[in-house]
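Priority: low. Protein: Gfo/Idh/MocA family oxidoreductase. Input follows.
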Amino acid sequence: MKKTLNFGIIGSGNIVETHIRSIQDVPNAEVTAIFSRNKATSEKWGNQYGLQVYSDYEDFLRNDKMDIVTILTPSGTHADLGILAARQGKHVVVEKPIDTSLNKTNELIHACREANVTLSCIFQHRFDDGIVDIKNAMNLGEFGQLNFGAARTTWYRSQEYYDSGAWRGTWELDGGGALMNQSIHYIDLLLYLMGPVEEVHAYCATRAHERIEVEDIAVASLKFKSGALGLIEGNTAAFPGYSATLDIFGNNGSVIIENDLVKEWNFKNGNEYTKASKEVVKTSASSNKMSSYESHKRQYDDIVHAILEKRDPLVTGEEARKSLVLILAIYESARSGSPVKL
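Result:
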C-alpha cells in the first residue's frame, strides 16, 4: 500500500498542531496545505510545517493534489465547509461535533455519499487503550447484561476563555456549551459502549459565566433502549477543573475510566486489566504508554486505511451524528421541562 494521501487543513487555531503532528506520523499520509482567513496564523503554521498557504477557500479546494480536508473551524461552520469540499471530490474529516445543526449534518452526510467520498469526525478517544479493551470485553460477553452507564465531565473554563472569541458561547457557532464542546467526547463513548438512548430528562443552567448564551452546567438522566439507565453531567464551572469519567456497570463486571485511563476494572470471572501504564506521556508510544497524540494518530490511521481499502472508518458521519442527536434532545428537554424520546 504505497499511495500517499495529502491532507489540507482548514482553520489555524491552536488545535492545528495536534492534527498536523498526528497526520504526519501516519504512513501513507502527509499534510501539504492550509486555508484560513487569518493570514498571520496560517502563515505561521505554513512556515513551521512547510505547507502551501491559502486565503481563498475556492482556490484551496481546487488543489488537485489534495485528497482530504480536515476542518478545524468553529462548530457551526463544519457542514457548510465540508459540503463544498465533498463537491470538489475531497474526503472530509471534521473536528467534533460534526456540526451544531441536525439538518446541516444530514446535508453533509448526503453530500459525501453523493460524491462518493469518505466522511469522518474526530472522536479520538474511541482509540484509547482502555476503550478498545472495554469494547473487546463487551464483544466477548464479559460484562453480561449492561445495567448502567454514566459520563461526567467536571472541568473549568474561565470567563477569559469565553471572551477570547466572539463565536464562543453562542448558539449559532458554538452550538452549545459544556455538553456540545467539552462533554461530547465522553457522551460519544457512552453511546459507543452502551448503545442508543430511548428517553432523556435534563436540566441546563448558566451559573458561573457572563456574556454567554449557552450552558455551563447540565445534567441528564437517560433510559437506554436496552433498558439500562444512565447519567450525563457536563460542567465547565467546576473550579479549578477536575476529571472526565466514564462508568460502565454490567451484571458480570464494571469498569471506570478516569481522564482516559482505566481506574477500575473488576469482573466476576477474575479478568484483570493488564496495561502497565497509568500515565499519558508526551514521548513516543510504546506497548504500555500512549503519547499525547497517539489516539489522534490511531484515528487518522484508520481513516487513511479506510479510504485506501474502500471501507468505512470506525467513526462515520452517521456515528458522529448520534452524539449530536442526544445533546440536542438534552437541550430540548431542558427547555421544555419534560422528558424527550429519541
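The chain has ten helices and 16 strands. The chain has a mean pLDDT of 93.
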